[in-house]
Amino acid sequence: AQSVTQLDSHVSVSEGTPVLLRCNYSSSYSPSLFWYVQHPNKGLQLLLKYTSAATLVKGINGFEAEFKKSETSFHLTKPSAHMSDAAEYFCVVSEPTGNQFYFGTGTSLTVIP
Amino acid sequence: EAQVTQNPRYLITVTGKKLTVTCSQNMNHEYMSWYRQDPGLGLRQIYYSMNVEVTDKGDVPEGYKVSRKEKRNFPLILESPSPNQTSLYFCASRGNSSPLHFGNGTRLTVT
Q: 10 Å Cβ neighbour count for B3?
């Protein structure tokens, strides 16, 4: 069975400081993992994906995530937050066939000027 | 432009009145799926389709129907909507080994 836990429902950072959004997963198989971002009144946009290649994955807009199998984690980071990063972020796991996707409950990121 | 298009963006209806939310993609993707998003619950998969005439239940299929008569279209049908189906709905598609592409969502209110 697959599941995703996003450890923080809300994160608030100051502009220019690092961002850390935490995600733990549970999977019976070697998972595919994703981070998506949702801006207000918009659909979800892919930030990055892990599919068993390099454990450090770089995405768009300066985001990256590290797959740690021993910790079953896939935390999202960014060195310096920008005002435009304020949004809802979802960690997602899919089972091997890629037909079913399991979403975390989301983390709302606020960036303070 | 590659996109997933949902219509309508907003819909208010009454209990029991059948409705359809349309979804169309122009990327020739075989896989399409529907999700509902509720506060504190994230997105939950309703139905998915791996190809024309092939559909399967996701985690929360009760009260919903889908059809896949053509590759590009995957409508979501609520035969008898109820207030607990008030939600934000997303359609998504993907090609082989590619991530999901999402539509902009349909906000449904059932009174």
A: 14
User: For B13-45, what is each residue's pLDDT tens digit?
Assistant: 999 999 999 999 999 999 999 999 998 899 999
The model's pLDDT over A84-105, given as tens digits with 9 standing for 90+, comes to: 999 999 999 988 777 888 999 9
Q: Chain B residues with CB inside 8 Å of A104's CB? A: 42
Single-letter residue type at A71: E
Which residue has 């504190």 as its token pair? B40
In this structure, are residues A30 and A95 in contact, taking their beta carbons and an 8 Å threshold? no
Which ranges constitute the DSSP H helices of chain B? Answer: none
At residue B84, the 3 state secondary structure works out as helix
The model's confidence at residue B97, banded by pLDDT at 50, 70 and 90, is confident
Number of residue pairs across A and B with CB atoms under 8 Å?
Answer: 51
